[in-house]
Task: inverse folding
């Protein structure tokens, strides 16, 4: 007889989307070679959209949401993992097309997993979560494009959100001067406490886009998209780099080629869902190396 476990389930009926907690049988889990006893997950922006049905995040019903998972391996036929291993997972369609982390058990592919960094707990890893992992992918891209602290200011949009707040902590720890863009002035003390050197109102980026504006930013981490991203590109210094990882404002990008061909600005897209495993391992290694767990615990916010 199949054992049961508790799970948050999103389903769809003729009356619309439903969300509720119920018992599930283990044989209802999806294909995978590793079964994880889930200890922690986190609530991401994408999870919020999935749970409310405000965007078509979930691709099959019923589904356990939760785009990241942390826990202990219970069973494994994968050569890299054995019972008792502490593992983390984010992306790969988990919580979208594959049962995710809002349950007591998860069954996934072992190729999707990364080991919990030495000295860290699963709770601490989910304090970072997909948001913090995405932030580190952005920072790796800036570094690889030659953006150094001496080059100038780095602007971070959506600064009080998960990606933004963790980006500030990590960038500040690496010596960058961070300018935090937010529409919530009451968060100024919080953002400066994370390491932001100064605050800029997000309204400054929600104006008509000029082909080339006054150059200011050596680099950027943007989770907003649309007009905000277009304005940041037009304000980026020659040979500067902008990383794009979100679309909170919209999927459109009303820009032009001038910043790219006259200033050599680079726009790097960040895909945190299907990132190759070697780069995932590097990102988590750097998170563990370049931050203090105490500071990261203060950062991620919705």
Result:
């Amino acid at each position: 007889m199949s054992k049961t476990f508790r799970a948050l389930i999103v389903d769809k009926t003729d009356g619309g989307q439903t969300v509720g907690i119920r018992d599930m049988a283990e044989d209802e889990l999806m294909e995978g070679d590793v079964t994880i006893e889930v200890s922690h997950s986190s609530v991401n922006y994408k999870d919020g959209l999935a749970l409310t049905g405000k965007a078509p995040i979930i691709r099959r019903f019923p589904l356990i949401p939760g785009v990241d998972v942390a826990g202990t391996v219970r069973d494994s036929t994968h050569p890299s993992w054995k019972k008792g291993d502490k593992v983390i997972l984010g992306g790969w369609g988990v919580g979208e097309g594959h049962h995710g982390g809002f349950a007591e058990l998860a069954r996934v592919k072992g190729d999707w997993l990364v080991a919990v960094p030495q000295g860290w707990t699963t709770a601490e890893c989910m304090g970072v979560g997909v948001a913090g992992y995405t932030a580190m992918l952005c920072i790796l891209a800036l570094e690889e494009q030659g953006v150094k602290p001496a080059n100038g200011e780095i602007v971070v949009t959506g600064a009080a959100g998960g990606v933004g707040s963790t980006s500030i902590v990590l960038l500040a720890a690496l010596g960058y001067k961070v300018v935090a863009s937010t529409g919530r002035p009451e968060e100024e003390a919080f953002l400066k406490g994370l390491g932001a050197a100064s605050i800029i109102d997000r309204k400054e980026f929600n104006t008509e886009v000029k082909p080339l504006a006054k150059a200011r930013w050596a680099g950027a981490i943007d989770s907003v998209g649309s007009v905000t991203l277009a304005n940041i590109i037009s304000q980026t210094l020659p040979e500067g780099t902008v990383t794009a990882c979100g679309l909170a404002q919209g999927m459109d990008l009303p820009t032009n080629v001038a910043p790219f061909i006259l200033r050599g600005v680079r726009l790097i897209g960040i895909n945190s869902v299907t990132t190759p495993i070697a780069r995932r391992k590097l990102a988590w290694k750097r998170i563990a190396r370049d931050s203090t767990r105490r500071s990261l615990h203060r950062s991620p916010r919705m």
